[in-house]
Design brief:
alpha+beta, Dipeptide-binding Protein, domain 1, Dipeptide-binding Protein, domain 3, 7-stranded mixed β-sheet, 18 helices, globular
Length: 569
């Protein structure tokens, strides 16, 4: 699952490093190793669970957490949500076949073990037999069959549908060329779920760790209609928490799911995700003790909070912040124009002077740390001629070549962003840089996230703030979002048949050298037309009081509370 970010997964099967920031304040790091043709078994986790249970019980603290979030998503359908703002609820209410452990490795979840065929194309998952939904009904392999077919269904048009294209029959079903029952994700029996892939997929186990690949409760989905995921009465979950109340515009209240298979080790009785749109207000609420944590440290306060606050945390993310370009409109359908705009931006100044942060300048779409075998993709692909600093003379020449010398005759750019203090500063800096370096004017407008996202999908903008985080730590999982018909493609109107073909070749190739070759060529095509202007790769800065223990944050922007507890508040 990729998340369209405002302003998902650390690899286990690749030779990379996955990290998690933990509730103890200590980074946990593990070197990932390949896992093919083997059987994976569940670890008991009894020592850590017993420790947190004893500590929480002995503390005498009320086990209720209040955590501030920045904005509200359009909904909370785990099988069809591509929004960052839905993450806090989704990752704590739903769990799939496997999950991301505190050390970044793939851990058994609904599946207590699995077998992988020698050719790497058939996965057999052995499910726990003690699983129930939050309403007390039995959860088994048939729920996964229903849920995965639902994601692949053309009727839902899920943001996660492409995950099913790797499965035999999945893409054909989505395209209306096959039937649901032809998709080879089947229940062998009530507690055995078997998946047959079209080709060996090196990051398949990473893929299934996302909440979007978990189950949804069929009866509730069908009874609740299009709004089932916005109604606490029909929001039946299978994770450590369930929803007590959706108070839209204010907060979401979660409570412990007594039917969760690991409920005995869940310490928190209640989590409230309170919506606080202003970052300074959220920070102050933590400092005054009104809330226990907040999801974004104001950029201007990062240095101070890092030095002074024991609640401060920072975590590198698998993310790229870029600006969408509507290439269906003139003059933005001319790559020379967009390249002029890209080269006129000073990324280093945006990061250091505007955001007052330590992000890394971005020169491509795939984030830093993406590996193909033992090769870092970002290093291999290069920077495409972009620089951390503005390349003003080159930008002016490109604009002149496109027919706009010194910006003469260039239309005013409609620069659109979602309401956010940090993004506001960035777009104002971009406006100034384009005015000073290219003599181009911008009209800046903003809207709440839900309105903004709908406008972007409708191509009702010229240039718009966006980005992508989470997903799988493999460049293919990011680049495939720009294949024709996918969400990334629909947000800009860009399409390239050769690009589409290269992504198919990349994910189906068993030769890592060829995979790298295909992906480098593919990103090169995307960057040549530049329907997305990369700005920076970010880290997550957030607040969590030290008396909140047992949680962990991954580089996919997930904070897990299954083992969290309050001690010494």
């Amino acid at each position: 699952m990729k998340k369209w970010i405002c302003a998902l997964m650390a690899t286990v099967m690749l030779l990379g490093v996955a990290t998690a920031c933990t509730g103890s304040g200590t980074p946990a790091t593990t070197t990932a190793a390949a896992s093919t043709g083997t059987t994976a078994a569940a670890s008991t986790g009894t020592t850590a669970a017993a420790s947190t249970d004893t500590t929480a019980a002995a503390s005498g603290d009320v086990q209720k957490l209040i955590y501030g979030v920045v904005a509200e998503p359009q909904g909370f359908d785990p099988g069809n949500s591509g929004e960052t703002y839905a993450i806090p609820v989704l990752v704590n209410c739903f769990v799939g076949l496997a999950k991301i452990g505190e050390d970044g490795t793939t851990q058994p979840a609904c599946a207590e073990s699995w077998d992988i065929s020698d050719d790497g194309m058939t996965y057999t998952f052995h499910l726990r037999k003690d699983m129930k939904w939050s309403d007390g009904s039995v959860l088994n392999a048939n729920d996964f069959v229903y849920s995965w077919r639902r994601i692949a269904s053309p009727e839902l048009a899920s943001t996660s549908a492409s995950s099913m294209f790797h499965i035999v029959g999945g893409e054909e079903y989505f395209n209306g060329e096959g039937k649901a029952e032809d998709m080879m994700a089947v229940a062998v029996d009530d507690y055995t779920f078997e998946v047959t892939l079209k080709y060996p997929l090196p990051y398949f186990l990473d893929l299934i760790r996302g909440y979007d690949m978990g189950p949804v409760h069929q009866a509730s989905v069908e009874a609740g209609g299009d709004t089932w995921h916005r109604n606490a009465d029909t929001y039946v979950t299978n994770g450590p928490f369930k929803v007590r109340a959706f108070e839209f515009g204010k907060q979401y209240v979660l409570e412990k799911n007594e039917h969760y298979y690991n409920a005995a080790n869940v310490q928190l009785e209640e989590i409230t995700f309170r919506i606080i749109g202003d970052n300074n207000t959220g920070m102050t609420a933590v400092e005054t003790g009104e809330i226990d944590g907040y999801d974004k440290v104001p950029d201007a306060e990062v240095t101070r909070m890092k030095m002074e606050s024991p609640a401060f945390h920072s975590k590198s993310m698998l993310s790229t912040t870029y600006y969408l370009v509507n290439v269906t409109k003139e003059p933005f359908n001319d790559p020379r124009v967009v390249w002029a705009l890209a080269k006129a931006l000073d990324r280093e100044s945006i990061i250091k002077d505007v955001l007052l942060n330590v992000y890394e300048p971005a020169f491509g779409i795939a984030p830093l740390g993406m590996m193909v075998g033992d090769v870092d993709f970002r290093t291999a692909a290069g920077n495409y001629g972009l620089s951390a600093n503005a390349q003003v003379e080159e930008a002016k020449q490109l604009l002149a070549d496109a027919g706009y010398p010194n910006g003469e005759g260039f239309p005013t750019i409609r620069l659109r962003y979602y309401t956010n203090d940090s993004v506001k500063k960035v777009v104002e800096a971009m406006q100034q840089m384009w005015q000073e370096n290219l003599n181009i004017k911008c009209e800046i407008t903003n809207a709440d996230w839900q309105v903004f996202f709908a406008e972007v999908l409708a191509l009702d903008y010229d240039i718009g703030a966006m980005g992508m985080s989470g997903g799988v730590a493999h460049p293919a999982s990011y680049l495939e979002e720009f294949v024709t018909g996918r969400t990334g493609n629909e947000m800009t109107g860009w399409s390239n048949a050769r690009y589409d073909e290269l992504l198919k070749l990349a994910v189906s190739s068993a030769d890592e050298d060829k995979t790298l070759e295909y992906l480098i060529e593919a990103e090169g095509l995307l960057m040549a037309d530049l329907s997305n202007i990369p700005i920076y790769h970010s880290s997550k800065t957030f607040l969590m009081q030290p008396y909140v223990q047992g949680w962990y944050c991954t580089n996919t922007n997930y904070i897990f509370y299954e083992n969290a507890y309050i001690s010494g508040k």
